[in-house]
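Appendix B. One record, verbatim.
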Amino acid sequence: MTQRFRSALQPIIDGVTGRVIAHEALMREASIQSPLSLIADAECSGEGSPLESQVRQAALGRLPDLPTDQKLFVNIDTRDITVPITSTQPHRIVLELTERHPIVNNRPLLQQILKWRQSGYAIALDNYGCGHMGLSALVTVKPDAIKIGRPLIQNLNTDPVRLAAVDGVVTLAHRLNITVIALGVETQDEFWAARDMGIRWMQGFLLAYPGPEPITAVSIPLRRKAGPLIPPPC
């Protein structure tokens, strides 16, 4: 299977200053077929690994486009751990493990994560709280960063259950010195709810859509109204 890929870049920002601290490389494909359906077809035909290799190389190829003070987040399908990852600047690469497949009790994956770390790459858990990304994955992988998924961020400012859940995740992550990123921030209220809970790093359509070129800063959204968050349930 030969495809031509390009990677769009979505910024991850400092929610205090508006400075862009990293970009995530997101797969785009030249045909009319969607990336997810393309991957599904490749898996069914037994060509998933060659496709994953092309996708990773396209993503890693965007690092020279970034300012030197920014990192690049690259998605990793945890089933294709034998696909090589090469970079002359591994300290600027964050390998983002996706939530679609099991991580816990996957000894080959855990051994590969150790090798990646020894090579200088950082490790992140994508969409934490969704799919296979739960507490067991966190304590097993001990990641450098977690991205709290959109299902938990959505309506964070009005839903006491989400508020309590995210508060627990943030507290644990900070105690373990794990960077927390709010993923899928789409409204001003969600942004400020996350900020007020101590989440500094943000990613989402409110701040910037994926684009062809990196950026260096965004405008911090205005707080819609003053007032405390609703308290978690007793």
